[in-house]
Amino acid sequence: MNLTQATDYAFRAVLYLARKGKGEVVEAQEIAGRENIPLRFLLKILRQLGQAGIVKSYRGVGGGFSLAKAPEEITLLDVVEAVEGPVKINRCLIDPQYCTSQRGGRCAIHRELSLIQNDIIARLGTVSFKKILEREQAF
Amino acid sequence: MNLTQATDYAFRAVLYLARKGKGEVVEAQEIAGRENIPLRFLLKILRQLGQAGIVKSYRGVGGGFSLAKAPEEITLLDVVEAVEGPVKINRCLIDPQYCTSQRGGRCAIHRELSLIQNDIIARLGTVSFKKILEREQAF
DNA sequence: AAAAACAATACTATTTTAGTATACTTTGGA
DNA sequence: TCCAAAGTATACTAAAATAGTATTGTTTTT
């Protein structure tokens, strides 16, 4: 029932870029330094965020990363899925070959877990980075 | 964002006992066989459920396990916590020593995750095994 | 063309997961 | 009384996931 460290880093990297605004390009090194994230690991994560269309990258001298969308268009769910793949609280719910109950994912437990999983996904989808920025201002 | 296989087995073992009713003693071997769970692994899990006060064990010939409470008094949350310990979607939220943001768990991201975590815990706490049994009957 | 920045792939150490093995204790019944 | 059936306790282990690191390559600006 855990998000990975990589996802936590991703959240903070996206928030960092969100503070700068949609277009602004920032070097990975700056984010790594400010957010206490190992540079090479951050680069790997930023590439995943890039493939998901959350950030854009610019190579060469003066390059870096910027948000590819406005902060209100990016949710925690988007970032989780970009880094970890589809959210699943039980592997059985995604891939029936792992359903050790031998009931093809149709037992009462797995139906219930499926509902809870849907709630979690919906909940993560309601939190945009614009919202997080606003809450941050409030302090 | 995953429950472990052990937790999944625990859910099914408790449901199996719940079907029998509160007092009835069932051998681990029977549960293992019916639910497709490795026996020794199940015994380990049942011991954890025992320490959490969810099941009672009986040793010796004719021994086994029974529910220690009525099915309506046992929730998915109880079982998750018995097997995995406290629910935490980010280790930083429980143990600040792991908070790599260097902000003592007080950044905007971690506040938001904390709210979501509370929702998940509340949600798991609303699903009792009585409820699951009832849903099962409905099929 | 040199240097700065990201890209891609492969590798590695650590931790967690998912069990297994071994030896022991309790209990009921022949 | 003693033995077999059941759970207890501790230690061990293989495989997978996590959290990085290393190396080499490509793009872009000056």
TrEMBL record, chains A, B:
Gene3D superfamilies: Winged helix-like DNA-binding domain superfamily/Winged helix DNA-binding domain. SUPFAM superfamilies: Winged helix' DNA-binding domain. One of its GO terms (cellular component) is cytosol. GO terms for molecular function: DNA-binding transcription factor activity. InterPro entries: TR_Rrf2-type_CS, Tscrpt_reg_Rrf2, WH-like_DNA-bd_sf, WH_DNA-bd_sf. PANTHER family: TRANSCRIPTIONAL REGULATOR (PTHR33221:SF2), WINGED HELIX-TURN-HELIX TRANSCRIPTIONAL REGULATOR, RRF2 FAMILY (PTHR33221). This is Transcriptional regulator. It comes from Carboxydothermus islandicus.
